[in-house]
Amino acid sequence: MLASTLTGVQYFLNALFLVAGIVFLVKGADYFVDSASVIAKRLKIPPIIIGLTIVSFGTSAPELAVGIASSIKGEAGLSLGNVVGSNIANLTLVLGMSILIHPIIVKKGLCKKEIPFLIIATVLLIVFSMDNLLSGFSGVQNIISRGEAVVFILGIVLFCIMSIKGAQQEELKLEKEEIETFDPLWKTLLLLFIGLIGIIAGAEFVTTPASKIATSIGVTVGIDEALMLNVVGLTVVAVGTSLPELVTSAIAAKRKQNEIAIGNVIGSNVFNILFICGITGMIRPLTLTPDIITDMIISLLFTILVFGFAKTGLLKKWYGAILLGGYVLYIMYIILRLFYPNALLPL
Questions:
Q1: pLDDT tens-digit map of 162-213
Q2: Which residues contact 267 (CB under 8 A, 6 or more apart)?
Q3: Cα–Cα distance for residue pair 330/259, rounded to 1 Å
């Protein structure tokens, strides 16, 4: 736990780390998207499957690292705040910016399988988190038990099987000339690995100094440290660990690789809930506070909104503007809850 303010030099050094982290993220995501696309074509796997599995797992690595570290330290608030906050950022900030860069075409299969799967996973997370309400006893503590964590792990296994079967049912048509332009496989895999390392390192360089700066500011203005860290998990750490998704999806959208852009967002959110909460919950049962359940419900509402947009078949730029506006409103809500905890009561 951080309990002291930073000096001017420390603020400056942390800012430098932030800039370095962004550079790592941009270049890492650049290599990662290119390599993932090439692998998809080589293996005749539809790009949407690559986006929903390999790219999603890779860009969720920072959330996994934060979740495991927080769980081991007993900081469930930071772990869950990171997952929920990252999912909200992915659905609004990441997808919104990607759509503004270039409208995204949505395949029908995504609305029939993957997005409904994400909705179910989010509902399951909310249900598992509401022991107090569902038991009917006010003294019951809200926790995600190891047994519930196992259910999450089984869920991610089911998701991967579903994605693989989807890949077997689709054919990716490649022209002979396109195949001949591929780089050697070893080079593609090397660039994929370098890109993943760059993404993870960049997220660490961004998240750690940002957390230090935010917590120092909290101490300076006299905000309770535990409350400040909870907010940091939902905002600073969440955005920091969502930067891989942001950069990866943005670059994919710019290159009109629509399926990777949206598949990355949906797949990452599924991985965040099922895999990260599953792993961290098995390490140590996760204790929740009522306010985080409110954020889970907000995440569910954004997921349903994206589902409605996706059903149209084309994510238009004004959809992206709505999603970005929703994220701004959410941040305003978080700030209001931070300084005026009684202004908006959690559910």
A1: 877 765 565 444 444 444 466 787 788 888 888 888 877 776 776 677 667 6
A2: 51, 52, 53, 55, 56, 57, 114, 163
A3: 27
Sign of CA dihedral 8, 11, 17, 19: negative
- Write out pLDDT tens, residues 282-323: 888 887 777 788 899 999 999 999 999 999 989 999 999 999
Q: What is the pTM of this model?
A: 0.78
Residue 23 CB: number of other CB atoms within 10 A? 12
The tokens describing 104, both together, are 């995204």
SS3 315: strand
CB atoms within 10 A of CB 14: 18
| One-character DSSP codes across 199-220 | HHHHHHHHHHHHHHHHHHHHHH
- Collapsing DSSP to helix, strand or coil, 116 comes out as helix
- Cα separation, 66 vs 111, in Å, equals 30
Q: HSE, CB side, 13 Å, CA atoms: give it for residue 213.
A: 21
For residues 209 and 14, the answer to whether their CB atoms sit within 8 Å is: yes
Closest CA to 289 of 243, 224, 239, 245: 224
Q: What is the pLDDT of residues 16-42, one digit of tens each?
A: 887 787 677 667 777 877 787 777 777
